[in-house]
Structure formats: C-alpha cells, structure tokens
Request: fold
Amino acid sequence: MRESLRCMGKVVLDITMSVDGFVAGPNPSLDEPLGENGMRLHDWVFGLRTWRGRHGLEGGAGGPDDDLVREGIESTGAAIIGRKMFSGGSGPWEDDPNRDGWWEGEPPFHMPVFVLTHHPRPTEERPGGTTFTFATDGIEAALAQARAAAGEKDVTIGGGASVAQQFLAAGLLDELSVHVAPILLGGGVRLFGDGGPARLELVDLRSSAAVTHLRYRVG
Amino acid sequence: MRESLRCMGKVVLDITMSVDGFVAGPNPSLDEPLGENGMRLHDWVFGLRTWRGRHGLEGGAGGPDDDLVREGIESTGAAIIGRKMFSGGSGPWEDDPNRDGWWEGEPPFHMPVFVLTHHPRPTEERPGGTTFTFATDGIEAALAQARAAAGEKDVTIGGGASVAQQFLAAGLLDELSVHVAPILLGGGVRLFGDGGPARLELVDLRSSAAVTHLRYRVG
Reply:
C-alpha cells in the first residue's frame, strides 16, 4: 500500500455545552453527577432513535439531530474519556479506583474506549463491544493507543472539561464538535478555561429547536 | 388609541462572543481596549456594507451577515451601553469621567444611547443623530428611559459583559442575540458569569463562514 493511501482519522472533541459555556451544573452529587440541572444539557439526545438504539431501547425520533449522532458514530473508531466520565461525574467518589457505576451493564459506546486515569486497572471487555482500557501514561500515549484502535476512523474526545482542555492546550484536536443546548446553567464546570488563542473554521452547522451543532476545524 | 394596540419593543442583548465565551481578550490597554486579539471578535462586521455606511464609509459586502445587521438596526430604537463601552474598554482610564475617546466625531449609533455610569454628566447630542444620556440611577431606570425613547422599537443592550450580566440577572432581557465568532481567545472578559439557570428558545439562526448568529428568547 502506498503511503499516500493511508488515511488517519481526525481527533474530534464532541461535547454538549450550555449557551453560557458549562458542560455540567453546580454542586455535583451522587444523585446528580452532572450537577444541578446538568442532565438538561442532554435533553436533546435522549429521545433520538440512534441514542435509544445504542442503549438497547426501541423507537425514538429521526431528523437532523439523529442524523448527526448516527453519522458521528459511524465515523468514530475509538473514544477517549476522563476518569470522571468513567466513574460517574465529579465528586468525592471520583478517585475511587473501583467505582464504575456510570457504565454498568452494557455501555452505549460499542467501541474501544480509553479512560485517562492515574489508577492502573486491567482492560475490561463489556457486553456489546465496548472495551475500557485505562490509560495511565498521559494524553499523548492515550491518543496513540486510540488512533491504533480507530484505524482510519476518527478518535472522539468525549470529555469531561479537563480532558477536553488538555487536548486543546496540547494542540492535539483537529475539530471541535460543540452541541449548544438552549439553556443557561448559571454555574458549574466550564468547557473552556484559559488557554492560547486559536483560529477556528466553521465546517458544519446544523440545528433543531432542541440543540445547535457547531463544528469547527481548529486552525 | 386602545391599550391593546400599543406595542412595546423587546429588550435584546446583542453582543459578539468567541467560541470559548469571551467578549474581550486578556490585558486591555489604551492601544488594545478590547484586550489582546479582542478586535478579532469583530472581524466579521468591519467589511459589511451596513456597518461601513453607519461609519460614513462607502462600499462593503452584502449577504446574510449584512442583512442581519441592517434588520437589527431597523428594529432598534435605543441602546444601553456600559461606562467601559463609552470610554474605550476596560482599563485604568475607564472611570475618567471626561474620557470619551471611543466615540469621538460622529458615533455610529445614530439613535439615543443610554450610558450606565456613576458619573453624572450632561446629555450630549452628537452629529448624525446619536445622543448620549448618562443614566446614574441603575439599570431599571435606564431601561425605562430607553423604552420611552425607543417607542415601539426594541431596546438593545450593547454590552459590555457586566451590563449584560446585570440585565440577565435582573430578568430584564427578552432575547439574547449572540454572534459567535470562530475564534478561541483563550482568556479575557467572559460574557456569562454565574447566575440563575434559564431556559432559552432558539428563535433565529443564521451563519456565514465568518460568524454564527444565535438568537434566543429568554424563558
């Protein structure tokens, strides 16, 4: 195979944000791992046919939001998430190396998932094709593993905010796929912290009443 | 005239924000009152026919961004801005009651403008139909003045961030008109601080490659 025919997928941050820039609400707890009103961020996704199918549920709505979710899944070969997204949001339990309450049973990823953590833990194969690999050597090593698993498909950075910010600051993101939920959370965890300036290029824009999808190439 | 026929305009926050939520960059100075790279936020507007016309310049581009700016001007009867927007951004000079370097000559508003400030100062009539009235009794009194001046047209809250946040926190905004510039500033003045949660309803969405216009009704 000629070198020029080998394709490498993109590294895409894919995350839902409120209009005021939060990816989780204030005061996360075991009952509300996404903080107060944080689950409202994701109201747009729960009724979609593709989302329901990935969670083993029948029915659900089609339309532009569903198309976008389905296309995103089809183009993605591996995901990278943070320890908090694996263990169930931020809170006093987030560093419990044994906690995995968030993704019990059959997780909805159905692909290789790399969990950034300081706690070594054996790779777990779950029903439905999800594998959780615990990446303890930093974001660049995790990305190399995820790229190898994804082949020619994209690697999705699924959050949370600290993982997204690390990849952004290191210049490792090719695209930002930000789903803007029509809500002001008024506090919580911000997606974007302080970091170097960057030019973006809008490469896709879609919207329903429920959510606006902005996709940028990072310049 | 019957009471039911009297129309009152909307109160609209109209402001340009980076994707990471900033309305000005870091380290404002006299040379860069919008902070480092802050002028880039407004790159989308400088070449537009309507913007140029308001600044006494000929030529410029039409298209969706220009249409939106023109429609916004046509529907607006008065504006409210903060002291910093009057005196030239934030910085050590912002409380100089005599400074008005930002809007010397013929200002581009061409309508009544109410400046929120603690410094009483006589109303100024400028060439081209702009009047600056200095509102020292708080946001609600300023809004009452602006509504009276606007008649059946809208009142635009033009920023900066602290003025926008005061109106949002007080529940005085009917709509948010946020122009999202395709740039990450990486620091500076955030549009949204902490505040109560609110549901929004997307009422208009337009975009070019240069900027994405999101317009929400505040629930």
